[in-house]
């Protein structure tokens, strides 16, 4: 095993941690002039502003892999050969009733020649209880 394939794992920052950037001594930004001895350790403070719920992301990934697998069976082909089918989980989660969700899914699967009822039913069961993934927001600005 080569040294390049050795994997190291660094701990992730906690919610309250801050990231500091330290400039090299004598190196400044363009137009900022030389850095004097008092500023040799220049610290700029940045905040990590994006938080991801890893558990929710993992559930979403597993669901998307299951959808691709099921669509491969329904369309009787590999993923690369599959017709363009768009199933937006967040869009489905915005809809209030399972009947409306099922209707949206049936519209997406209109070109499928195999029965899709079992797929729709199973997908609706799997998304029950999931949350919509919202765009990350910046805090403290």
Features:
mainly alpha; disordered N terminus; single chain; protein phosphatase inhibitor; 2 strands; globular; 141 residues
Question: Could you give a short description of this structure?
Answer:
Keywords: Acetylation, Phosphoprotein, Protein phosphatase inhibitor. The protein is mainly alpha-helical.
Q: Which sequence of SSEs, written as H and E, runs from N to C?
A: EEHHHH
Range of helix content: 25-40%
Radius of gyration: 24 Å
Determine and state the CATH class of one domain: Mainly Alpha
Tally the helices: what do you get? Answer: 4
Intertermini distance: 46 Å
Secondary structure tally: strands: 2
Strand content: 5-15%
Say what the CATH topology of one domain is. DNA polymerase, domain 1
> For the largest beta sheet, what order do the strands appear in spatially?
1-2
* CATH architecture heading of one domain: Orthogonal Bundle
Keywords: Acetylation, Phosphoprotein, Protein phosphatase inhibitor
GO cellular component, one term: cytoplasm
Protein name: Protein phosphatase 1, regulatory (inhibitor) subunit 14C
Pfam family, one: PP1_inhibitor
């Amino acid at each position: 095993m080569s040294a390049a394939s050795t994997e190291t794992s660094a701990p992730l920052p906690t919610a309250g941690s801050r990231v500091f950037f330290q400039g090299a001594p004598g190196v400044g930004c363009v137009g900022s002039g030389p850095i004097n001895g008092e500023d040799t350790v220049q610290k700029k403070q940045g905040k990590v502003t994006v938080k991801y719920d890893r558990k929710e992301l993992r559930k979403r990934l597993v669901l998307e892999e299951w959808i691709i697998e099921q669509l491969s069976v329904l369309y009787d082909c590999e993923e690369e050969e599959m017709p363009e089918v768009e199933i937006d989980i967040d869009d489905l989660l915005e809809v209030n009733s399972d009947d409306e969700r099922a209707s949206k899914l049936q519209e997406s699967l209109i070109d499928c020649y195999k029965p899709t009822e079992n797929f729709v039913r199973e997908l609706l069961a799997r998304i029950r209880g999931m949350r919509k993934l919202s765009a990350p927001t910046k805090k403290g600005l």
